[in-house]
């Protein structure tokens, strides 16, 4: 027979999120909680150059330009992507370290993405 005080903790607990951190993380997770936005982030993260032209998204994702613009705006507002104007086109790249909070919330099992270094 085992008693409660005989058990060792199964894992080391870290400090929980404070209210500000939780709100910021929830904002990022909400932005990522859409299949199109996840695909956009995946495209940017796996691009060989680290950035993708806005002109590439509609064809690859089979969505209209206004729909893509809406999703890109959500990701920029959430601090996940950054936008750079180059002539006629906008280019998007990951904000360095932007997904660190998401990774930390998922725990040590979350693998590090090369694009989020």
Structure explained in plain terms:
The chain has 117 residues and is α+β, with helices and mostly antiparallel strands. The protein contains five helices and three strands. The chain has a three-stranded antiparallel sheet. Helix 2 (35-46) crosses helix 4. The radius of gyration is 18 Å and the shape is elongated.
Throw out a few tags for this protein:
elongated, 117 residues, 13% strand, Arc Repressor Mutant, subunit A, 3-stranded antiparallel β-sheet, alpha+beta
Q: Approximately how much helix is present in the residues?
A: 40-55%
Q: Can you tell me the overall shape?
A: elongated
**DSSP strand count:** 3
Question: Beta-strand level of the residues, as a percent range?
Answer: 5-15%
Mean pLDDT: 84
CATH structural fold name: Arc Repressor Mutant, subunit A
Decide which structural class fits the backbone.
alpha+beta
């Amino acid at each position: 027979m085992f008693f409660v005080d005989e058990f060792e903790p199964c894992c080391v607990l870290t400090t929980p999120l404070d209210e500000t951190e939780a709100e910021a993380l929830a904002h990022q997770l909400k932005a990522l909680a859409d299949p199109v936005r996840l695909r956009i982030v995946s495209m940017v993260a796996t691009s060989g150059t680290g950035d993708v032209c806005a002109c590439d998204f509609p064809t690859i994702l089979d969505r209209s330009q206004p729909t893509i613009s809406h999703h890109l705006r959500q990701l920029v507002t959430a601090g996940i992507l950054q936008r750079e104007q180059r002539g006629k086109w906008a280019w998007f790249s990951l904000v360095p370290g932007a997904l660190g909070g998401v990774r930390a919330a998922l725990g040590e099992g979350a693998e590090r993405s090369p694009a989020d270094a």
